[in-house]
Amino acid sequence: MGDRKHSSVEEIPSFKEDFPSLPIDSSILNTLIEDAQDWAHANGLVMRSSENKSSSDSCIHAPFSLLPAPFPASLYRQALQVQDATARLYHRIAYDTQWLLNAHENVIKTDEFTRNLCDILKKVTDEGLAQRKTLVIQRSDYMSHKDPFTSEYTLKQVEVNNIASSMGAHAERVSSLHRRVLSLLGMEEGRIKAAIPHNKPVIMIARALFLAWKEFGRPNGVILVIVEDVNQNQIDQRHIEYELTEQGVNPALIKRITLTQCHESVKLDSDRHLILDESTVSVVYFRAGYSPDHYHSHKEWDARLTIERSDAIKAPWIGLQVANTKKVQQVLAEDGQLELFISNFAEAASVRQTFAGLWALDGNDPVAEKIIKISSHNWTTEMSSCVYKVLLYPLTYFIQHAQAKPEGYVLKPQLEGGGGNFYGDEVCDKLLHATAEERSAYILMEKLRPLVVQSYLVRAHNSTQLAESVSELGIYGYAFGNDIDPPVVATGGHLLRTKGKLVLEGGVAVGASVIDSPFLYEYRGE
After folding, report:
1. Do residues 437 and 453 share a domain?
2. Is 7 part of a structural domain of the chain?
3. Same-domain status, 89 and 158
4. 217 and 190 in one domain?
5. Positions marked active-site
6. Is 234 within the bounds of a domain?
7. How buried is residue 177: exposed, middle or buried, by Cβ count under 10 Å (0-12/13-18/19+)?
8. Does residue 1 form part of some domain?
9. How many CB atoms lie within 10 A of CB 314?
10. Four-residue CA torsion sign, 286, 292, 295, 301
């Protein structure tokens, strides 16, 4: 660390003067890693091993970064400030069934999973929603993106997660771990407190579920947690259940069950109550159901429809899940679409400011036609990375300047949970061989250029080396309410996921990232 004398004032640190000097001496590094691994096991920062995902009798520590990742304090504050507006936005979108169906009109022609979700949405809307209020527990993900024209770092949205927003328990533990590591390295307490922000997402998530449970009005009402058949990250979920019991829910009322088991075990009564083993379900908390892999047959889809037809408060309900697609993210970026749901100009502008470049690939979209036309002329690897120019400038300008400052892009399907994206030449191949209808199931997104820092990524049974890495910041929040009144919203807690600079996919669950926390700093000309 820098040698300057710090006052007791909790001023946001300067990265150059306050962050630990790298690399760390090997003897100190090994001691820190051993201490951190012991702390992780002692404090529940663990997950099931990949060799035994179905049981907790063999656990390893969750992958984490030994040091927090530098992140601009101004962008962190911006992400916090926009979260309530984002939660309200998706709460409103979910109730506009016709807008959602129109947005996915071309997607569902070839995307069976999204089509099934839309079918359920239409059925329950036509029938009339039984639940009085709805709940979204959300995590909005961003990167600190280096603008290719100004070279300044700006906050850009990667995606919004309305279902199974995970890693909150692990995230808050890593924040605590990083405070310990910085203290062991000699950083003063006031500087640590300023650099590592308060982080308690579990309490906020549990409070949202408790609020819904109380609203339903049955002291013996069940909280049904829909889980995957095999879940390596079960411990992270359990921390939320434990906090629910601290807030007053009898642990016997919290039931974990798969969609397959729901088909055999849950039913609707004449009042549209959801019944599990003769008990009424108050809240359904989906920690599964976001991937085609979770629906093995019609049984799981039938179970989902039964749940959605009930008066149990769902987190999320089907409208919020349909609103969670990449297609909705892209449509909202179009002129005037976001403003349909946010009437306040300043609030709409604050949300829109975080949008990255997003474009439709519908068969009749003029941008898509330009891309396909150029693709058919034998794109080279270098030219294939220049699609950004197609989208910003006239075609003749693109051809003339294709070799200068090429920008990247990502082709994204509607899937959640990490994986499935296409990069580089894969995009060219997909566009060349897909039909117009098949292309409609994807969106094209500007490939962000995140801040690159040095990190020690600690994974169980692996050596730890200093590596260039990039991070993605997630902000947790919720919205709870009906389709008439403004919903109750709250923001609380964050997650930072860090991965190697050259790793394309994200997500801890898919093995790409480690759990991290931000080291907030102010840029002071360093």
Report:
1. no
2. no
3. yes
4. yes
5. 139, 159, 161, 166, 326, 412, 416-417, 497
6. yes
7. buried
8. no
9. 27
10. positive
Phi, psi dihedrals of residue 170, rounded to the nearest 5°: -65, -35
- 282 touches 216 (CB < 8 A): yes
Contact predicate 504/181, CB 8 Å = no
Out of 446, 462, 478, pick the residue that ends a domain. Answer: 446
8 Å CB contact between 99 and 340:
yes
**Same domain as 468, residue 426:** no
For helices 26-42 and 168-184, what crossing angle results, to 10°? 140
439 and 455: one domain?
no
Tell me the CA end-to-end span of the chain in Å, nearest whole number.
Answer: 14
Residue 251 assigned as binding residue: no
Give the torsion through C-alpha atoms of 312, 318, 324, 325, to 10 deg.
160
Residue where a domain terminates, one of 414, 446, 478: 446
Are 501 and 404 in a shared domain?
no
| 190 among annotated binding-site residues | no
Residue 4, domain member (yes or no): no
pLDDT per residue as tens, the chain (526 positions): 443 433 334 567 666 678 999 999 999 999 999 999 999 999 999 999 888 888 888 899 999 999 999 999 999 999 999 999 999 999 999 999 999 999 999 999 989 999 999 999 999 999 999 999 999 999 999 999 998 888 899 999 999 999 999 999 999 999 999 999 999 999 999 999 999 999 999 999 999 999 999 999 999 999 999 999 999 899 999 999 999 999 999 999 999 999 999 999 999 999 999 999 999 999 999 999 999 999 999 999 999 999 999 999 999 999 999 999 999 999 999 999 999 999 999 999 999 999 988 877 765 544 445 544 544 444 444 444 444 444 443 322 322 322 232 246 778 887 665 557 877 767 767 766 777 777 777 877 878 899 999 999 999 999 999 999 999 999 999 999 999 999 999 999 999 999 999 887 666 766 689 999 999 998 654 4
340 assigned binding-site residue: no
**Count of the separate structural domains present in the chain:** 2
Q: Quote the domain boundaries for residue 398.
A: 366-446
Q: According to the annotation, is 161 in a ligand binding site? A: yes
Q: Are residues 251 and 121 in the same domain?
A: yes
Q: What is the CATH number of the domain that holds 402?
A: 3.30.1490.50
Give the whole-angstrom CA distance, residue 66 versus residue 514: 10
Q: Is 419 annotated among the ligand-binding residues?
A: yes
**Do 248 and 347 share a domain, yes or no?**
yes
Find the helix or strand (DSSP H, E) in which 392 lies.
helix 387-392
415 is in an annotated binding site: yes
Please tell me the distance from the alpha carbon of residue 232 to that of residue 14, in angstroms, as a whole number. Answer: 38
